[in-house]
Amino acid sequence: MTSPAATRLARLDALLAESPVIPVITVPELAHAVPLARALVAGGIRTLEITLRTPVARDAARAIMAEVPEAVVGIGTVLTPDDLQAAHDLGARFALSPGATPELLRAAAQSDMAFMPGIATPSELMQVLAAGFGIAKFFPAVPAGGMAALKALAGPFPQARFCPTGGIGEQDARAWLALPNVVAVGGSWLAPEAEIREGRFEAITERARRTLANLA
Length: 216
Fold this sequence. Notes:
three-stranded parallel sheet
């Protein structure tokens, strides 16, 4: 019989296989949500992280799931068990956290939500692995040691895989993805908040296309 942890991991694996690049999205106003999601999907990027950083974030995720069915919506900046439950109740496909408290790990282990906890150190990674989570968000990726840190973690933790986020840009995404223990990269460069506020969605579509072309 497959364990809940294995089921969650398989679900997350499948989601990340669909897109090696996950835009980290902060939606400033609800009216921006659907046009932004459509712009990214038009550029070939379907897997989206909607961060819980603005008052409209939950409504934005709900609107995208209702009106852009091609999008695979995840909820980011999950900080508490309540945030995780909110992601589940919204119908999000996955959830991500910049870190991992014992309370959040316990709640995630009891949930069927595909969840990616955040780590920045070996000790944090050990706690995440012990809780049954084999894929972690490495955050903040560049300040926490960059590619050299992930190469070093591969030695004592060959089973761990990562989605680095924080300081990664269009020019170095390919180098990060070339690391054997990296399954995806996340970043806000795909949908800059200034372009969202200005309604420059064509620029976002073009950047998405260019990013995927550079990774091909």
